Amino acid sequence: MKRFLPFHFNWTWAFLALFTLLCLVLSSFTAVRLRALLRSDAEASLVSAAANNVHRVDLQLQQGLSDLQLTASVCAAMPDDQDRLDHLTTLVEQSGVDALGLFTGEGEVFLTDGNRSMLTGALLRASQEGVPTIRFSNTLSPDGENDLIYLVPFSSQPGGVLCRVRASLPLQIPEPFPGFQNAPVVVDPDGTVLAQEGEVLFSPDLFTALKLQYGADPLELEEMADTMASGGKGALRFRMDGRSMALAYAPLSVDNWYLVTVMDVESNQAPLYKALWITILGDIILLAAFLFLFLHARRSQQQSMVLLEKAAYVDPVTGGHNQTRFLILAQEALDAQPPGTYALVSCDIQAFSLVNRSFGKAAGNQVLYHLNTCLRQKLRSDELVGRVAQDQFILLLRQDQEAAMRTRLSGMASVFNAYNDTLANPYYLPLTMGVCRCDPQDPATLSELCDRANLARKRAKGLPETQLCSCAFYLPSDQQRLLMDQSIYNRMNTALEQGDFKVYLQPKVSLSTWQVVGAEALVRWFDPEQGFVEPDVFIPVLERNGFITRLDAYMFEQSCILLRRWLDLGLEPVPISVNFSRANLGHNALPQYRLLQQRWKVPPELLEFEFTETLVGENPAYFAELVAQIHCAGFRCSMDDFGSSYSSLHMLQQVPVDVLKLDKSLFDGLRDDARRERTRTVVQSVLEMAHRLGITTVAEGISDQVQLSALEGLPCDMVQGYYFSRPLPADDFQQSFLRKKEE
Length: 743
Ligand code: C2E
Ligand code: MG
Ligand code: MG
Prior knowledge:
- This protein is of the alpha/beta class.
- Among the domains are: 185-269, PAS domain (Beta-Lactamase, 2-Layer Sandwich), CATH 3.30.450.20; 321-419 and 427-474, Reverse transcriptase/Diguanylate cyclase domain (Alpha-Beta Plaits); 484-737, TIM Barrel (Alpha-Beta Barrel).
- It starts with 10 loop residues before the first helix and ends in a 6-residue tail after the last helix.
- The chain contains 21 helices and 27 strands.
- The site of ligand C2E has 22 residues, from strand 19, helix 13, helix 14 and strand 23.
- One magnesium ion binds at residues 640-641, 661, 700.
């Protein structure tokens, strides 16, 4: 059977997945976009820092040269080289430059640090041509390093002054932002490195290092070389030790030199990236929190749904399906299979109300739980059971031949009663089942099928049991019966009010004196429109709708009135027995009967209650208690229809009734020659046993001489039957059988 509330495509989940996807895509897009922006921003910063550097370095170089020109003009005015060298030595000490020096017309150099050297190459040419110049050279260096040399020839005589500066000194610039290399590199346009210091070193030249060591893009390198050759400026990205680096190149004003400014992009942008990652992480945390809250809310909602579903569909007593769920699942099953596949079975426990009354509601609930378990145990995989009311269950079973279905249902009743196997005092709970087959020729809705199964069950109540199960299959006449029930229901109140119910009395004759010694009050209904209605027709209806309690009380009161009248007329009264229906057990009816008896001032011993044997058999202990109360009130008690069901003899021991009315079916065999002796033996043993227990016996339904003769010699006290008299109107009875009291 399909699980209820199956998984369906859920728009909420789809929306959630879409939302999450959208958030992730947006976050990724933002991250990528921000990264690109940061990169271009870094490049812009670098380019602007580089331009700044070029300006600073140019200024420093020009400043250095003009300072040296001033020194040159001072020195030119001095008389000899010794004075000039002394002046230069003083200046070195004051200015902090590395070294100053004089050079002669032949290019010989005298440095303030005491070293002597010779000008070569471009410096020599510049000294000879009298052009102030700035060059990188290692010829004047004490340690062979490439130093920055400022050279200013005298204008009026050969020779001049020069200044040696350690290469990096004039190039030191303040760090504008993190990651910026504050020692720029000076290169020739062909990439030859003139001066460099710091972490990033380009060796043997700028382009080779960028290409081989730092993996710069060859195309970009080519473009950079072209740009530098044409005196332009630009920027380039490269990687160093896995870090993203960038350099900017721009021409200096001196000798086509280029200043290369290097920046560690990553460390420069680390705070920004940190902020970016924190933002993304924050987004993810927020998204996760949202998802968590959403899922939590969803889970709570689902838990509430489960609880609601349970409340709506689970029977709290049995834990199984309730009516609503049964109907939903049954409809699904019926829709899924061709008509005629299933039959509906309505089932209840006979006399369940007695279980509740005798053992309490909790025990009653346990019985219902047990029944549900037993029924489920016997179901096939596609069959269903649900509890629809108090002790009423409904089953959807696979349709089969009637005999096979009866066997199955009896099997269920047997399993349900199997607990009795181990009990010393068994307490049987027979089931009543009504079956409605699904006839493909007569299609009906599920609700109609249930109604029909219920009708069949109601009819089954009057049927004999097989293995603790009374079972009836739905017949169209059940519908008629329902209509009849309704018709009786509509008329019963008026009938009682108008006195359409009449008391008839059937005499009980003593077998020893042949005198009428008692009477049974039997109801007769004379409907003004429909005429005489048989008790067998209306009494079961009134029992089902509970009206029988009012009718029984009415019959009891009418009997009291009759007895009162007989007493008032000075007639010798005979005790009247009234039938006491099952429905009276639902409420404590005895006090009401006592009031009636007291109102009409009738001696209680003239009144007797008749309980059917089956009623007593359902719960002998309960009846023993009830009989005690009845005796206490002074009334008498009889067990009616004794011998009509299976549990007779044992009950007598438990329930101390005054009278035993042997059922007329017991005497049927007396008419049959073949069965007479056996029947007589059975009747005899029952009578003898009752006699020994001090119980008065009445043989019911004696309708002919043969039956009467067979009773001769047996210890039977009274006879009631058509042989002596049919039930008579009370007046006729009085007329025929009552005598004046002897004074
Ligand atoms: P019951 O209490 O066992 O009453 C005896 C039934 O047997 C009566 O049927 C009576 O007419 C019938 N009877 C008596 N002698 C003979 C006979 O020789 N042969 C045959 N074939 N039948 C005989 P009745 O009056 O139709 O009542 C049927 C049942 O209806 C009663 O069985 C009783 O259970 C119930 N009943 C009748 N009146 C009342 C009543 O006022 N209240 C209640 N609760 N039930 C009643
Ligand atoms: Mg009776
Ligand atoms: Mg009877």
